[in-house]
Amino acid sequence: MKITKGIHHITAIVGEPQENVDFYAGVLGLRLIKKTVNFDDPGTYHLYFGDEQGKPGTIMTFFNWVGAYQGEIGSGQVGVTQFVVPKNSFGFWKTRLKTYEVDFTEKKRFNEEYLQFSDPHGLKLELVEREEGEKSSWSFNGVTPDFAIKGFGGATLLSAEPEQTVQLLSEMMGLQVIGEDNGWIRLKAQGPIGNIIDVNTHVVRKGQLGVGTVHHIAWRATDDQDQLDWQKLLKDQGYAVTPVQDRNYFNAIYFREHGELLFEIATDPPGFTHDEELQDLGSQLMLPPQYEPHRAKIERVLLPFQVREDKL
């Protein structure tokens, strides 16, 4: 067994970049920490949102597939992505969601209350109040640290083989099974945020990748050596693991677990300030060295957008 502290980031597929930015920055108050391109498809954005620094456990990222088909959420995918907010902040968030005409429902699992809603492109999200995790230091568009999203609360997983997914998480990745409730198994990692994973014990219809679905969920590795140790362990257990991929802000390996979810293990370093100053994060299009000679062509293809104080 090895141990991960929990979620490093979650990457989803969405549509128009302006709608994406208006919602996650303008409504939810997250910071756009990196504006770059999909390294495997440089004609599309890869946008990163998080806390002020983009610390692991706070990073929600998006591939903007403008005009693509709508996906279907189902087995082999993250079902719902949860963000954690401070205790006693639901009143603020209920009012804010109503103000921005975001429909929400109140849910309950494991004696916790959730506000569940969808983003403009159909991605399912939840807010949960917890004491754990330090408050965000980022303020934007009326969202102050007293109410701001701290990072991930966790995620619900829809597995094609729930028992095997739970076994992987608990016996190889160091999460602890802490409860069962109405068809869900709850596991907890050691980190203070991005640490609660609920696995649906019922198998639902297979998901279809597209707009409004999660592409992959990434788990934290301490550093490059820790990641290589993960890679060896997974290979030894029969998983098909990719070579290390340089994603500029972290290194990544990928594998598909037996429940058909795409898992990534990403390094905590180097982070997002090695190519931009902290105060400038997300302000310019940042390209990896291999695409810099093609900047003019890439910029002509990408749709312009602004981070706006109010959703217009």
Automatic annotation (TrEMBL):
Tagged with keyword Oxidoreductase: yes
InterPro entries xrefs: Extradiol_RC_dioxygenase, Glyas_Bleomycin-R_OHBP_Dase, Glyas_Fos-R_dOase_dom, VOC_core
Annotated GO MF terms: dioxygenase activity
Domain VOC: 6-130, 151-268
Stated name of the protein: Ring-cleaving dioxygenase
PANTHER family per the UniProt record, alphabetical: RING-CLEAVING DIOXYGENASE MHQE-RELATED
Keywords on record: Dioxygenase, Oxidoreductase
Oxidoreductase recorded as keyword: yes
Organism whose genome encodes this protein: Alkalihalobacillus trypoxylicola
Cited CDD domains: PcpA_C_like, PcpA_N_like
